[in-house]
Design goal:
Blueprint (H helix, E strand, L loop, with lengths): L2 E7 L11 E8 L2 H10 L5 E3 L6 E2 L4 E8 L4 E6 L3 E7 L4 H10 L24 E2 L2 E2 L4 E8 L4 E6 L20 E11 L11 H8 L4 H15 L7 E5 L5 E3 H10 L5 E3 L5 E4 L1 H7 L6 E2 L2 E3 L6 E4 L5 H19 L8 E2 L1
Parallel strand pairs: 2-5, 3-5, 4-20
Antiparallel strand pairs: 1-2, 6-7, 7-12, 8-9, 10-11, 10-12, 13-19, 14-16, 15-16, 17-18, 18-19
Helix pairs in contact: 3-4
Bound molecules: uridine-diphosphate-2(N-acetylglucosaminyl) butyric acid.
The site of uridine-diphosphate-2(N-acetylglucosaminyl) butyric acid has 20 residues, from strand 13 and helix 6.
């Protein structure tokens, strides 16, 4: 079903809870409905808003916001090893993770409790605790607004990288994702190598699928603010990837600096949260906005903040990290 709203307040449709509005917002369920919208009229300015978990509105949106609401979760192929599942873009990501874990299917458990909807997962290749959406995505289906047709891209064609995909690059502003096909495994495959996961799983009694989900949920809840209580968009910054030589120089001064292998050879990924923390900004507050007191990568709205206030703090954080460590940190959040 298509539902249309005019002059709509977006405060409850963005996890930062900033008070901005949109001229029009249209919810759609099926791809036929989506195509009919583009056939019916020409949208001069439009965007897709999924869960609103990775966006910061700095002004009212003078255009049409499209929201997928399809709740489809449908297994389509089952072998002795795997189950392939079609999932609608409007499904809450964590509902999909819960669905898989309840059925004993492996692959999504490390991505438990990531806020947002399934349609947004491939866009920035969401990731946590040693897993990324690209590990399970087999195919992404979307409406190509320029070619006016439905298209499919296989995983290899999506140009996935760290918080990257073709949907943030050449297909930016041209694609509306309607469905994602996921491959889940029937075989045990615990991935416990990241941070506190192994310790927490042991405490719960061992590496079962449900224990891993529970461990990840409890680690996330202990570090990351609940958007229902404190507006935020998860990590506001990406972890910076620097040349190996730069990392080595920093490590000589800060031997405890966390660092990880990067996809690019000769490069190392640093922890932006640590850099911000060590710049003395963890828990720092400027009016209604602040750096979260338990995870410095997250900026929070203590109540009534505007998008511009959040940006001002973000710029300050970037400048201080640059000054102290000589490292540039880029924003992960989509700023509008
Ligand atoms: N750290 C600090 N102080 C802080 C934050 C982090 O010292 O305030 C240190 C930690 O102790 C650790 C290192 O920095 O040694 C990395 O921290 P953490 O394990 O919390 O992960 P992260 O690199 O800060 C990334 C993702 C998160 C994801 C976690 C867990 C990005 C931008 N963020 O954060 O994703 O949940 O790993 O895998 O890659 C998100 O994208 O919204 C998100 C929350």
């Amino acid at each position: 079903m298509i539902r249309e709203f005019n002059e709509i307040n977006l405060a409850f449709r963005n996890s930062f809870h900033v008070e901005q509005s949109a001229r029009r917002l249209i919810e759609f369920e099926t791809e036929e409905e989506l195509m009919s919208l583009f056939e019916r009229e020409t949208f001069t300015r439009w965007m897709v808003l999924s869960g609103g978990n990775n966006v910061l509105f700095t002004q009212d949106y003078d255009g049409v916001i499209l929201c997928p609401v399809s709740q489809l979760i449908e297994p389509i192929v089952e072998t002795t090893d795997e189950v392939v599942v079609r999932v609608g873009a409007g499904v809450e990501w964590d509902d999909l993770v819960a669905w898989a874990v309840e059925r004993g299917l492996w692959g999504l458990e490390n991505l438990s409790l990531i806020p947002g909807k399934v349609g947004a997962a491939p866009v920035q290749n969401i990731g946590a605790y040693g897993a990324e959406a690209k590990d399970v995505i087999r195919r992404v289906r979307f409406y190509d607004v320029e070619q006016r047709t439905m298209r499919n891209l296989l995983r290899e064609e999506c140009c996935f990288g760290y918080r990257e995909s073709i949907f943030k690059q050449e297909l930016k502003g041209k694609a509306v994702i309607t469905e994602v096909e996921i491959v889940l495994s029937k075989h045990e495959n615990p991935r416990l190598g990241y941070g506190d996961v192994e310790r927490e799983v042991e405490r719960l009694g061992g590496a079962t699928l449900s224990n891993i989900r529970e461990a990840i949920c409890s680690i996330r809840c202990s570090k990351l603010p609940d958007t229902a209580v404190l507006g935020n968009a998860g990590s506001f910054f990406k972890n910076p990837v620097v040349q190996r030589a730069v990392a080595e120089q920093l490590l000589a001064t800060y031997p405890d600096m966390p660092h990880y292998p990067a996809a690019e050879q000769q490069c190392v990924k640093l922890a932006a949260g640590w850099l911000i923390d060590r710049s003395g900004l963890k828990g720092y507050r400027e009016g209604a906005v602040g750096v979260h007191e338990r995870q410095a990568l997250v900026l929070v709205n203590h109540g009534g903040a505007t998008g511009s206030e959040v940006i001002a703090l973000a710029r300050k954080v970037q400048a201080e990290v640059k000054q102290k460590f000589g490292v540039e940190i880029d924003t992960e959040v989509n700023i509008l």
